[in-house]
Write a structure and sequence with these properties.
About 60% of the residues lie in helices and about 10% in strands. With about 190 residues, the protein is an alpha/beta fold. It is globular, with a radius of gyration of 16 Å. Bound molecules: adenosine monophosphate (AMP).
């Protein structure tokens, strides 16, 4: 089963993805983590993206799509994908459709964790004290949230017309969201 967890930064996608990884024995595909890893390794990609990432801008589609391609074509991960933070633009959503089609896969569920800006700001400020990410300061948080809302609106429209799309209140308690997702998945 392949799923997408969709929602603004700080919506709780990573948290829910981790529960699902355990429950389904799937893989969490977090483009944010993959990109941070490239920076940590100081790879060619890492060097190209470091500025965009610390400023809260999107990394260009070509780089992100190339990372995703490897994952979708990996036979060990086939039908075990939990996308967290991807797709984030219409180009990425269309790219994903194409890759899935080529590998005879599909997205079974899309969960949209909807959270308002004030809650996101509060959550990310808390996360900053734990994870110390360079893109978690207040200005950057606001930029990332606004950018997310504008750019991802077409992605939302792309998925929300399908019957496998479910919107959840991302400001609810973590366990309540987990229970709702489990319910939709009949777990
Ligand atoms: P995240 O960990 O999902 O909050 O992502 C952190 C940062 O990584 C974002 O602010 C972007 O700079 C970059 N990033 C993560 N995923 C994507 C994506 N799908 N497309 C473009 N940039 C991304």
């Amino acid at each position: 089963m392949n799923l997408i967890l969709f929602g603004p930064p700080g919506a709780g996608k990573g948290t829910q993805a981790k529960f699902l990884v355990t429950r389904l024995n799937n893989f969490q595909i977090s483009t944010g983590d993959m990109l941070r890893d490239e920076i940590q390794k100081n790879s060619e990609i890492g060097k190209r993206i470091v500025e965009d990432m610390s400023d809260g801008r999107f990394v260009n589609d070509e780089i992100v799509n190339s990372l995703i391609e490897k994952v979708v074509f990996d036979p060990d991960m086939k039908n075990k994908l939990i996308f967290d933070g991807y797709p984030r633009s219409l180009t990425q959503a269309k790219n994903l459709e194409k890759l899935l089609e080529k590998t005879n896969q599909k997205i079974d569920y899309v969960f949209f964790l909807n959270v308002n800006k004030a809650t996101i700001i509060k959550r990310i400020e808390q996360r900053k004290t734990v994870e110390n990410r360079s893109d978690d300061d207040l200005d950057t948080i606001i930029k990332r949230y606004d950018k997310y809302m504008i750019t991802t609106k077409p992605v939302l429209d792309f998925y929300s017309k399908n019957s496998n799309f479910f919107e959840l209140d991302g400001s609810s308690k973590i366990e309540e969201i987990t229970a709702k997702i489990n319910n939709f998945l009949n777990l």
